Amino acid sequence: MKNYDIAIVGFGPVGAAAANMFAESGFNIIVVEPKYDIWDIPRAVHFDGQTQRIFQSMGIFDQIQEIIDPILGVNFINRNGKELLSVSFESHPKLNGYYDGVMFNQPKFEEILRKNASKYSNIELKLGWQVDKLDSNIDSNLLEITNKATNQTESLTSTYVIAADGADSFVRKNLNIKMHDYKCDQDWVVVDYLLDKKYKVLDKSRYQICDYKRPTTLLPITNNHIRWEFKINPEDDLEQLESEKNIRSFMEPHIWRLNPDIDINSGTLIRSSKYSFHGLLVDEFKINNCFLIGDSAHQTPPFLGQGLCQGIKDSYNLCWKLKGVNDGIYNKKILDTFSIERREINDFMIRTAIKQGNVIGTQNMVKAFMRDTFFSIAKIFPKALSALKFQYSWKLNDGLIDKDLFPNGANGVIIPQPDINIRVDNKQFDQYLGESFSLIILNEDETLIDDISNIEFMDIFKNNIHIFNSKHPFLKDGRLAKWSCENSISAAIIRPDKHIYGCCDGVDIIKKIEKLVKNLHNEVNA
After folding, report:
1. Which CATH class is domain 429-524?
2. Which CATH architecture has domain 68-103+186-277+364-381?
3. Average pLDDT over residues 438-447
4. Could you give the CA distance from residue 251 to residue 330 in angstroms, rounded to a whole number?
5. What is the pTM (predicted TM-score) of this model?
């Protein structure tokens, strides 16, 4: 019977991303996936800045860059076609070094992941196989898998199991993990439309058609692919609703917004399908040495485009922790923070997506009037826009963060990444900080390094200790300097995933760094 470090169940985009991350970290992996081929229907279409930053860490961003287009703004339109509000994203700060919203084609994304995974000799891929049995205990896992074509069965063991097997997850059900239902179910028709090659999409903005009779979303994706979403009403006849004639009639009032020269006959309808949007979240992301990621753990309404993003972030959060435990650097308790942190973030994301959906999708005339009035006010008084969020800071409030020294500071947020074109020693900022914990100090006195070297437990940083003075290249574009100034930060311990473990101001800085390092050592030391 073969034994593996990790068995990944599922080889969709989240499972494939996980396979790449964990293989790069040196784990011996088996991936079990019932399907052979990539599903050629585009589903997820959006990455945020942090997800692109993860691709940077994986070494695949150059390939990803070939299949993405930025979202340049959002426009809210009322049912009469009048613009309520228009917001440009081009001036938004690139806190992660990238546009905070880009569109992509999912099948092409999965091709990149599978091609990259094929270079790893420590990945064994079982396509056309499914997991039929899982016996999990605290030390190991026994899996029985079956070839769907031949009914051949095999047994294997793995130290860890990572479930990326989707909304109907076998692993989640096998472990009897319950899900919290946010009771926000909605039915929408999702339409993919391909514009003829002779036309171009001139407006790369998102359109929210705030029509209380038929809320609609219009999204230009990439390469003339356009995504439409139409809310289904209780009285609708679904078969009639999904007819091509009906769908094109829904598109007619707004398709010209992408290019005045196009109309409903300027392209091909690729698909039209009913989707039920849910808000679901597992009570636990971890049982024994089994971990849930992606749709197996959470299902988010699509109004912020965060479903796939959060699945990739699940894997990224888990990978460095599991590697540290496997290498004997961290104690096993750190794995419990995976569930704490990912549940908190996904709960926030689901609730925020529900609120966004309620804003654009309300079919209550009074609420629709109030929304339209607010947008009209925000158009005249831009400060009112502060009530609307178009960028999100993924702050951890619990888990592996320091809660002792600077509890109201920037602990738990992701440190800004300077312009990705700025390099030191031919490395972008994240690569410069390295894959372990790192300590950065923003100070003109570079002799501080001598005092810091005498602090106990500094080996946790593996020499990733950096003093940035005001002339340092990474401070040139102002992102780090602004972050430091606004939060009164002179020193920060950065986790491998670039969340801030803890930070402090410049008063008695050596003592405060010593305290932070001791706290970190006590939490993670093996």
Report:
1. alpha beta
2. 2-Layer Sandwich (3.30)
3. 89
4. 55
5. 0.95
